[in-house]
Amino acid sequence: MRLNWRAIPAIAIAVVLLAGAGWAADKSEKNVSDELKRIESATNVLDEIMGAPDKGIPQDILGSAKCVAVVPSMLKAGFIVGGRYGKGVATCRTSSGWSAPAPFTIAGGDWGLQIGGEAIDLVMLVMNDKGMKNLLASKFKLGADASVAAGPVGRQAEGTTDWKLRSEVLTYSRARGVFAGITLNGAVVKQDEDETQVLYGRMVPFGDILTGKVAVPKGAEQFVAAVRKYAAEAKAERSSSERPQR
Question: Is 12 among the domain residues?
Fold first, then answer.
């Protein structure tokens, strides 16, 4: 059999292209897997915090939240002048329940250093329409564009009369097993466009995701389900406490 030398370059190019396509597909699948793992971690953080008796987020506050955002393992970095950076997911109330998860980043200066430890789990609750509007804008600065305060702790805390409820965003942290409110003035929250493209296969505006215009991606249902569960429990608890005693 005669070897067609002219065909070799074309064959070589085809092999390279096929190999490149396979590598790109593997990389894409890995990226999706990484984002789904982050969503799973965010779900676990919420489950553990809400499962802590008398140590978690007050029921009435969670039940009133417009949006819930969780950042698992936000890292501290830097020497002398430090900072924090993390990636998380958020979901907001819609007319039909809770929205699909929206990836975001949060970055800031030396806030929260009083907690100690190199990493913290962070939960942010958007409490009113103004705060929700800021979140939907896809980028805002806590303390400047939206007022922020360390949230009260304790399952039955009197959140309805607490002055902190006047804030648009309430924030909580957990480090080395210690759960507490945290002040995040100066932190910038914005849509994570790269992870959004990974999770949805295309760029979807933050507002479209958080207002329920897209379906929950496969594998990401757990986070939305957890938020729905705890919000429903908070609502049931509130209804029970408001029911007149006989």
Answer: no
